[in-house]
Amino acid sequence: MSSNRIIMHIDMNAFFASVEQQGNPELRGKPIAVIGSAKRTVITTSSYEARAYGVKTGMATWEARQKCPHLIFVIGDNRKYTYTSAQIVKLMMQFTPLVEVFSIDEAFLDITGSLSLYSSPERIAHLLKAEIRHHFGITCSIGIAPNKLLAKLASDMQKPDGLTVIRPDEVGQVLDRVPAKDLCGIGRKTARQLALYGIKTCGDLGRFPVGILRKRFGIIGERLHQMGLGIDDSPVIPAEQADEVKSVGHSMTLERDIEDREEILKFLLQLSEMVGRRARRYSVWGKTVTLSIRYADFDTWVGRQETLPSFINQSGDIYRTAVGILDTLVLMQPVRLLGVRLSNLRYESNQLPLFHEERKKAMLVDAMDEVNDRYGDFSVTFGSLLDEEKAGNKGSHVISPAWRPNGIRNVDVK
After folding, report:
1. Which residues pair with residue 303 across a beta bridge?
2. What 3-state class would DSSP assign to 400?
3. If DSSP codes are grouped into helix, strand and coil, which group holds residue 55?
4. By mean pLDDT, which of 70-74, 122-126, 309-313, 348-352 is the weakest?
5. Is the pLDDT assigned to residue 386 strictly greater than 50?
6. Quick check: 277 and 377 in contact, CB under 8 A?
7. Who has greater pLDDT, 305 or 349?
8. Does the structure show a pLDDT above 90 at 355?
9. Annotation says 273 is catalytic
């Protein structure tokens, strides 16, 4: 395969379900569905055995049961998934230092410089697949192409346990037969709009007049044109070379819908402590606090923010600001998800405040952080978080798409 760049995209197959099946031999070969918690009713992911019956991500459990009466529901273990993902990333880095984590179960590798050690890109792919299967007992699908856009497209072409190579001289032929909606970055809404212009395949998109695309989609129109031609110059960016994070946030899907203010405040305090801990760990301060609320219908959400006159990173300051935002809202439904984010950031080392009371408070926070760093999050916490019902409710029930196995995006999950 000859090209200036050789990019590989690795996509773990039915990752959460595969990890569960590997950990429990009784689940292997059976249709299973991973769900967020016993009280929630949506499928997080399903095994390929379940997918054969039509069980899909986002499907209600009752509907999944109708399609597959012998479906086995498994409560997800996010800590297990993030740990496994981090270990797989370490394995990938044995083949190239240029690894970009795209999500918990996906990564891009630039293997251009690794070919001097291996006979071909396919050789690297087969070795990686064998190592992942040997160490973790799960499979992945791999795409190899001249750029990230095409590599991700290729990895979707043969699942599960597939390997697809798109060579530079094959790009036009491949794009002529692939639906435009299969390109990463083209969602269902955009695909419907493109179809109104008669654009069905990637080839159609590449040949369509770029001026019309610009007029209809604005600056994105130019990018759509390039995608249709298979052009993508974006580099594979390892975590240590990534741009500075623009915000520090955490969200939590609740075990049950709540509307009592005191309960909401407890979760806000917990979220504020999570955000504050990460901000302090990486010497980040912010001026803007955003509160996000998603209602029980999961289709309606509210997001409000407040920008402060000075920078903060102490959990109490974040919490008080979030409560202030909450007090401006009239909640129309019970709450299903809460999120707190600190943005408008600056990076600088912590310095003790000038005034005695503020200095004493900062030293107390530092002491709490030191204990929690050593013994685990929430080993020392606020008294209002210690009631038995919430004591085990530490961490997020949702793994953010921004999750990374290290650095400031490595959030604690449940």
Report:
1. 292
2. coil
3. coil
4. 348-352
5. no
6. yes
7. 305
8. no
9. no
Main-chain phi, psi angles of 30, to 5 degrees: -110, 155
Q: Which of 49, 100, 106, 273 is catalytic?
A: 106
Residue 240: which residues within 8 A CB-CB, separation 6 or more?
Answer: none
Residues 6+ apart with CB under 8 A from 118: 124, 127
Give the HSE-up count for residue 120: Cα atoms under 13 Å, Cβ half-sphere: 8
Element (H, E) at 393: none
State the Cα–Cα distance between residues 265 and 2, nearest whole angstrom.
Answer: 58
In whole angstroms, give the CA distance from residue 342 to residue 248.
5
Which pLDDT score is estimated for 74? 94
Contact 250, 411 (CB under 8 A): yes
Q: Look up tokens 């921004």; give the residue.
A: 402
Q: Average pLDDT over the chain, rounded to whole?
A: 85
**Cα angle: 302, vertex 309, 377; to 5 degrees:** 65
15 three-state secondary structure: helix
Confidence class of residue 113 from pLDDT cuts 50, 70 and 90? very high
Rounded CA-CA distance 95/148 in Å is 17
8 A C-beta contact, residue 139 and residue 18: yes
Average pLDDT over residues 335-361: 72
What are the φ/ψ torsions at residue 57 (nearest 5 degrees)?
Answer: -60, 135
Which domains does the chain carry?
Answer: 1-166 (3.30.70.270), 171-228 (1.10.150.20), 243-409 (3.30.1490.100)
Under 8 Å between Cβ of 292 and 337: yes
pLDDT digits (tens, 9 = 90+) for 147-159: 999 999 999 999 9
In the sheet with 284-295, reading across from the earlier edge strand, the strands are: 247-258, 335-347, 284-295, 301-312
Distance, CA of 40 to CA of 37 (rounded, Å): 5
* Furthest-apart CA atoms within the chain: distance in Å: 71
Q: Which helix (H) or strand (E) element contains residue 47?
A: none
Query: Do 15 and 32 touch, CB atoms closer than 8 A?
Result: no
Are 108 and 99 spatial neighbours (Cβ–Cβ below 8 Å)? yes
User: Tokens at residue 402, please?
Assistant: 């921004």
Give per-residue pLDDT as tens, 2-45.
458 999 999 999 999 999 999 999 999 999 999 876 555 678 89
Q: Report the pLDDT value the prediction gives residue 398, as an integer from 0 to 100.
A: 56
